[in-house]
């Protein structure tokens, strides 16, 4: 039996867990290729026009899986991973959007409700509803989840050592151990972005590689554990309703306070409500902290040249500022 997992949205955060889970249950895991323009166009055609581009891309990946002769497609209903906080409503309604947008997938969807008090979503209660559909026992599900949890913990441990989610996923997929620590660069840039906006190279247009090619170190929210990020929001009277938005806001504040971070780039998808709020907060706070900040807002129509020009101008400005500061310090 083949289980399809779309290479979109939270694939870039939970795939190590879900892959091992289904493989331990005895199923073959099938995923999609990297996002390409043709796939995006397919997703656009079957999506409502005002939905954000990551959801359109997700629909395109589901269509790709339908063409790969899978038996089931895994589309979990992501509810919450913190008490009192929730995922974006689009995540909570994702199974329904797929069900009614792609009628061919209606009877192929595995849609467990995922609810947890932490980022670790391996609690067996989240997945028990799939036992009857897949024909596996609760004992086997529990046993598979124990191994899946270890895989996800390894992924998170490597991420907190400074590797990007994509680097860790690629290494785990190929079976190659990551031993070399990420090298530092002359500039250090904080990237504020949800994993699916940053590591889907169609959306981010490969910004991570572009920066590293210029000897620039990057930091992202998944490179920090939950406690580090939580500490950044302790002074707030009220946090946001959306957990991953809180992660971005928290890492944004960390970047603002960190003297080693030379600038911040916020990558967001057009039409993202939570991100519009976060972006404005960071824009105002960056003035007080005197920290260079730039927002890149992307959609399915954005051109690569536009991104490249803006990023290069931003980096050049920061580079000149840092070089001048070093020269002034040496003179003194």
Name the average pLDDT.
89
Low-confidence stretches: none
CATH topology call of the largest domain: Rossmann fold
Number of helices: 15
Number of strands: 10
Taking strands numbered 1, 2, ... along the chain, how are they ordered across the largest sheet?
A: 2-1-3-5
Percent of residues in beta strands? 5-15%
Q: What separation lies between the terminal Cα atoms?
A: 70 Å
Summarize the main sheet: 4 strands, parallel
CA-based gyration radius: 20 Å
Helicity range: 40-55%
Number of domains: 2
Shape: globular
The H-and-E topology, N to C, reads as: EHEHHEEHHEEHHHEHHHEHHEHEH
CATH architecture of the largest domain: 3-Layer(aba) Sandwich
Q: What would you say about this model in short?
A:
The chain is of the alpha/beta class and 332 residues long.
Would you kindly provide a written description of the structure presented here, covering whatever features stand out?
Helix 1 runs antiparallel to helix 7 (138-159). A 4-stranded parallel sheet has the order 2-1-3-5, with helices on both faces. It has 2 domains: 2-159, Rossmann fold; 183-331, 3-Layer(aba) Sandwich (Rossmann fold), CATH 3.40.50. The model has no long low-confidence stretch (mean pLDDT 89). By secondary structure, the protein is an alpha/beta fold. The chain is 51% helix and 13% strand.
